[in-house]
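Practice problem 4.
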């Protein structure tokens, strides 16, 4: 009896048009370091300028932290808040840097028009089986939702002419393409938000640390002097210490507010991406049974 060999089944490999985006994230480590250096320069050379004090420190060896006395205004008085002040200024500059960076990124990811209106147009074109116009609409919309939708539409168009797969398999291929495109878009949206959430907590603690250090210095000076001079030094020290608290709380407030603003906008984009995938799979299943 002749041996019966099993028939070889041709494996259908689904290629993807989604390509990883190679983008450097050097800003994530370069920006905080640069901002702290700039913060020190502002504190040391702008706030700590000798012209801002009635009694500048004559000792040139104190170049890193001169002991100037008698600030001529409220802003120069921040200099006497201590070495925590330049760190707080650096954290504030870091927050502003990442706010600008995230604003530009999220604005670009939002696309050029209303996401809801864009999805309605794509649904209309797909209902009329006009995939090319739907892809043209993606080119006009751009942004993360447009990118994901276009990647899915490429696979959608490919599956229309594929006669070897069942409808269910075609829908799964479209869904997989959308998931791969989504996996590339989401990290770009959420990148660097961790800095805002971290600084929101750390800035307040740094402000309190500066306040405690300032109070320690104030009470030490109080113990070394007496009478009216002691009361004057104590009130001056408390005022200087509270500058740290103000900087810390202000920086934290900005970070918290902007973090919530960005996460809200990202949630809207993510919802649009999810709706795009649902639109493609449901449309294909309905039109190409």
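Answer key:
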């Amino acid at each position: 009896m002749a041996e019966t060999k099993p028939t070889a089944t041709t494996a259908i490999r689904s290629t993807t048009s989604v390509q990883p985006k190679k983008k450097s994230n050097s800003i994530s480590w370069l920006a905080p370091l640069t901002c702290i250096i700039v913060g020190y320069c502002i504190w040391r050379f702008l706030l700590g300028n000798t012209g801002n004090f009635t009694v500048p420190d004559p000792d040139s060896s104190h170049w890193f932290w001169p002991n100037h006395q008698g600030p001529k205004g409220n802003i120069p008085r921040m200099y006497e808040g201590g070495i925590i002040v330049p760190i707080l200024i650096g954290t504030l500059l870091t927050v502003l840097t990442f706010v600008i960076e995230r604003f530009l990124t999220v604005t670009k990811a939002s696309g050029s028009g209303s996401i809801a209106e864009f999805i309605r147009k794509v649904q209309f074109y797909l209902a009329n089986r006009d995939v090319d116009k739907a892809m043209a609409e993606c080119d006009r919309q751009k942004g993360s939702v447009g990118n994901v939708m276009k990647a899915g539409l490429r696979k959608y168009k490919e599956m229309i002419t594929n006669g070897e797969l069942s409808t269910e398999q075609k829908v799964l291929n479209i869904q997989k393409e959308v998931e791969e495109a989504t996996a590339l878009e989401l990290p770009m949206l959420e990148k660097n938000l961790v800095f805002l959430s971290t600084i929101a907590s750390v800035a307040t603690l740094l402000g309190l640390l500066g306040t405690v250090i300032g109070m320690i210095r104030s009470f030490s000076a109080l113990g070394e002097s007496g009478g009216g001079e002691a009361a004057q030094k104590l009130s001056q020290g408390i005022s200087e210490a509270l500058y740290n608290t103000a900087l810390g709380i202000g920086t934290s407030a900005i970070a918290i507010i902007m973090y919530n603003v960005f996460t809200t906008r990202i949630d809207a984009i993510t919802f649009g991406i999810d709706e795009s995938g649902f639109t493609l799979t449901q449309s294909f299943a309905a039109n190409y049974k």
